[in-house]
């Protein structure tokens, strides 16, 4: 057994042919060879595992705009109001750098081992059990809390048109739709998210064209305003206490910097990282072929959608616009607070604000749907590692962890808080929770990756363990990951700094900003103490004991079945290559030999059973 290897249960027991069925072990912890000419999908038993049904086009669109909600189009106006157009663009650009560092680090780890909840489960393998549990609970909580956030967001968007209805109606409808989408095969979820993601891209690109056309004079006022708004108040003073100093020139640079800092903090909430692409790894076909491309799409999301959106917002709307000021102070619902809609109203453009508001509904709904998926799959990964009862590993006949979906959707009930409070207040509460939890998740991601990379290099190059090459290689490691780690750690404490001003101090705001820090530390210490009292070892895993093997067997055979001919790359020529194209064009005997060599890498016993079978029945692979 290779260092760190753990036998994995609940893996598929397909047969290779009628003649050899009695010669191959059917234990649930083994994999047999499928040599049928149909190359049916390699799946684990439906009652134990999810299914790899997400194809390339789903994954690529989801990676670009899967979890982009209303923040890019509406909430971003708050950053513009606080910092100005220049600070907005610069602040988001600054925060994109650590997000890019975290993305490429996570991509390297997830593409190597694209299992269910990969980065969460790698926390236990690479670091220790307590950190693994803390990371899992923090991420599950983060995803679950964002479900009611997007549900409330949809209701506030509807309020743009009318308020004479019970908020419970859209809330219940949304939860029901999320449940309906989530209980069927993941390919239906992928298809729905594909079109919703495409619609969000169309919305973003459409607003880019709106900016370009109107700034050149293509508007009812014939006003070619160009970069007028960028030239005026581009770096705005921000007073966290809401009280301007008596001398307006006193500490001018400090207040401008605080405006920039407010934009960076808003960016830490708005700009999502690589976690969503990571969570779909366990249900992606040929993941080591598709996921490296998907992670590269994150660069497009960062530069085109987020930075392009910041540039356009700074062009169309001035940070001192009276309508924007009133919208922020009054917490206007839906598109009423969007800088784009404010610009449309200023330019006397009719109908288009209603179209944008309708598009925002689909954006918020799509984001909530994505969070439902991520929360259920993270809970499923926790169940696989024994963090929660085994019942949560049960999947329906479509390969959906149904109990995980039901429990995660229960968090949608938090959206009913807005029945007794102003919905904007509820949104602000949730945003404060989300920001801290998301930053903690990014910090943990960097820690896990640093240990993964060190273990991989130690085992492969110093111990001589035959590990696959990395399908995705990031640049500048480990310094890139260290940069992301330091930035997120600092931002965890900066994101709520304004609460410490004497004029702003109150216990409620402090808890909303920092309670997740105390909760996560408490979870980690609780499990450390628990394992100590139980007499179980929970020391930091040494480099030579990190498990980098478990799960590879299923992935190798799955990709062989789906014609992904990259084994010469992964195994340095150890696997036979009949051609340079796809496996289905090769001779069937070469395919079976490749599968046999994969099994030989992981399970010598099963290969010996295979060799003892009748040679004629094995060679009949057509």
* Rg calc: 26 Å
> What portion of the residues fall into strands of 2 or more residues?
under 5%
Largest sheet composition: none
- State the domain count: 2
Which blocks of ≥5 consecutive residues have pLDDT under 50? 1-47, 567-587, 604-622
Distance between the first and last residues' Cα: 33 Å
> How much helix, percentage-wise, in residues?
55-70%
CATH architecture of the largest domain: Up-down Bundle
Inertia-based shape = globular
Query: Could you spell the SSE succession in H and E letters?
Result: HHHHHHHHHHHHHHHHHHHHHH
CATH class of the largest domain: Mainly Alpha
The count of β-strands is 0
Tally of individual helices: 22
- What does the average pLDDT come to? 78
Q: So, the CATH homologous superfamily of the largest domain? A: Amino acid/polyamine transporter I
> What is CATH's topology name of the largest domain?
Amino acid/polyamine transporter I
Helix-strand makeup class: mainly alpha
Subcellular location: Membrane
Transmembrane segments: 58-80, 92-115, 136-161, 167-189, 201-221, 255-277, 298-316, 355-374, 395-417, 429-450, 479-501, 507-527
Domain Amino acid permease/ SLC12A: 59-530
Pfam families: AA_permease
């Amino acid at each position: 057994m290779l260092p760190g290897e753990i036998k994995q249960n609940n893996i598929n027991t397909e047969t290779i042919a009628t003649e050899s069925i009695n010669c191959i072990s059917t234990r649930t912890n083994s994999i047999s060879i499928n040599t049928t000419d149909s190359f049916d999908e390699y799946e684990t038993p439906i009652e134990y595992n999810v299914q790899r049904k997400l194809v390339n086009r789903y994954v690529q669109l989801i990676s670009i705009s899967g979890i982009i909600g209303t923040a890019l189009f509406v909430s971003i106006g708050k950053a513009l109001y606080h910092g100005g157009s220049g600070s907005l663009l610069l602040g988001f650009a600054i925060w994109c750098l650590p997000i890019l560092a975290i993305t490429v680090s996570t991509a390297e780890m997830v593409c190597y081992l694209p299992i269910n909840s990969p980065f969460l489960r790698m926390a236990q393998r690479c670091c220790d059990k307590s950190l693994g549990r803390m990371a899992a609970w923090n991420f599950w909580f983060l995803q679950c809390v964002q479900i009611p956030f997007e549900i409330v967001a949809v209701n506030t968007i509807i309020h743009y048109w009318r308020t004479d209805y019970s908020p419970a109606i859209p809330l219940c409808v949304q939860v029901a739709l999320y449940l309906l989408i989530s209980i069927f095969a993941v390919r239906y979820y992928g298809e729905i998210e594909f079109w919703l993601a495409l619609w969000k891209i169309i919305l973003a690109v459409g607003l880019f064209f709106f900016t370009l056309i109107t700034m050149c004079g293509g508007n009812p006022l014939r006003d070619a305003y160009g970069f007028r708004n960028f030239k005026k108040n581009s770096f705005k003073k921000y007073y966290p206490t809401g009280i301007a100093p008596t001398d307006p020139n006193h500490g001018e640079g400090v207040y401008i910097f605080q405006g920039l800092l407010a934009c960076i903090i808003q960016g830490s909430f708005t700009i999502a990282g690589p976690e969503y692409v990571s969570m779909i790894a366990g249900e992606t076909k040929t993941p080591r072929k598709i996921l490296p491309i998907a992670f590269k799409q994150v660069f497009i999301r960062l530069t085109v959608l987020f930075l392009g959106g910041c540039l356009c917002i700074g062009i169309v709307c001035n940070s001192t616009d009276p309508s924007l000021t009133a919208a922020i102070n009054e917490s206007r619902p839906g598109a009423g607070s969007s800088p784009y809609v404010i610009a449309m109203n200023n330019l006397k453009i009719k109908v288009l604000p209603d179209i944008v508001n309708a598009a925002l509904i689909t954006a918020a709904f799509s984001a909530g749907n994505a969070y439902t998926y991520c929360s259920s799959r993270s809970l499923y990964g926790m169940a696989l590692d024994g963090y929660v009862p085994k019942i949560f590993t049960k999947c329906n006949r479509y390969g959906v962890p149904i109990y995980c979906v039901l429990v995660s959707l229960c968090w949608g009930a938090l959206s009913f808080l807005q029945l007794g409070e102003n919905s904007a207040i509820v949104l602000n509460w949730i945003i404060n929770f989300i920001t801290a939890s998301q930053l903690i998740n990014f910090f943990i991601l960097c820690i896990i990756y640093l240990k993964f990379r060190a273990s991989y290099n130690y085992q492969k190059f110093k111990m001589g363990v035959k590990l696959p090459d990395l399908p995705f290689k990031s640049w500048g490691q480990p310094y890139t990951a260290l940069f992301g780690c330091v930035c997120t750690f600092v931002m965890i404490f900066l994101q709520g700094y304004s609460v410490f001003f004497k004029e702003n101090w109150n216990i409620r705001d402090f808890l909303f900003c920092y309670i997740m820090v105390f909760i996560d530390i408490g979870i980690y210490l609780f499990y450390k103490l628990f394992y100590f009292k139980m007499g179980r070892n929970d020391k930091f895993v040494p480099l030579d004991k990190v498990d980098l093997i478990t799960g590879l067997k299923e992935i190798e055979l799955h990709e062989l079945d789906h014609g992904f001919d990259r084994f010469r790359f992964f195994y340095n020529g150890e696997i036979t290559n009949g051609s340079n194209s796809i496996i289905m064009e090769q001779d069937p005997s070469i395919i079976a030999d490749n599968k046999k060599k994969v099994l030989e890498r992981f399970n010598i016993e099963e290969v010996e059973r295979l060799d003892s079978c009748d040679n004629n029945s094995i060679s009949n692979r057509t």
